[in-house]
């Protein structure tokens, strides 16, 4: 599982000369990630560490001035919870979120 970068951390070259910026965010640590188990489509929850990682991602977005127009997530709760926690921490809870099974893990 990925660990959040320790503050202060800056995103490299955010928005310089580009029309669009694509932000990819993996879900925080899930209960099965912590057990080194493959989750796939099993809908397991985030661990406390995973919740901290999601909030840290939102803080990173906020600290770097990243403003999102739209968010996409899978229907799995670990991904949708990560998205919502990150958006809330970034102060962007109003951003529209589209959930689709097509973005579930394979």
What is the average per-residue confidence, as pLDDT, rounded to a whole number? 85
Q: For the record, what CATH class of the domain at 31-103 applies? A: Alpha Beta
Oligomer: single chain
Record field, number of beta strands: 2
What is the makeup of the main sheet?
2 strands, parallel
CATH homologous superfamily assignment of the domain at 31-103: Phosphoglycerate mutase-like
User: If classified by CATH, what would the architecture of the domain at 31-103 be?
Assistant: 3-Layer(aba) Sandwich
Structure class: mainly alpha
The number of helical segments is: 3
Helix and strand succession?
A: HHEHE
* % residues in beta strands: 5-15%
Q: If you consult CATH, what is the topology of the domain at 31-103?
A: Rossmann fold
Give the termini distance in whole angstroms. 17 Å
Specify the helix fraction band.
25-40%
Sheet with the most strands: spatial strand order: 1-2
Task: Output the radius of gyration.
Answer: 14 Å
Characterize the overall form.
globular
Low-pLDDT residue intervals, each spanning 5 or more residues: none
What does this 3D model show about the protein?
It holds the Pfam family His_Phos_1. InterPro entries: His_Pase_superF_clade-1 (IPR013078), His_PPase_superfam (IPR029033), PG/BPGM_mutase_AS (IPR001345), Phosphogly_mut1 (IPR005952). The active site is at residues 27, 105. Belongs to the phosphoglycerate mutase family. BPG-dependent PGAM subfamily. One of its GO terms (biological process) is glycolytic process. It is a single chain. The chain is mainly alpha-helical and 106 residues long. The protein has a domain at 31-103: Phosphoglycerate mutase-like (Rossmann fold, 3-Layer(aba) Sandwich). Helix content is 31%, strand content 6%. It has three helices and two strands, in the order H-H-E-H-E. A two-stranded parallel ribbon has the order 1-2. Helix 2 crosses helix 3 (77-89). The chain is globular and about 40 Å long. The mean pLDDT is 85.
């Amino acid at each position: 599982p990925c660990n959040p970068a320790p503050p202060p951390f800056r995103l490299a070259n955010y928005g310089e000369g580009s029309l669009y910026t694509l932000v990819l965010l993996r879900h925080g640590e899930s209960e099965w990630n912590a057990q080194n188990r493959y989750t796939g489509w099993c809908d397991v929850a985030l661990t406390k560490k995973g919740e901290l990682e999601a909030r840290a991602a939102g803080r990173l977005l906020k600290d770097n001035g990243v403003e999102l127009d739209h968010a996409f997530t899978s229907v799995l709760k670990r991904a949708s919870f990560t998205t919502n926690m990150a958006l809330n921490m970034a102060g962007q809870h109003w951003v529209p979120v589209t959930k689709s099974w097509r973005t579930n893990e394979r």
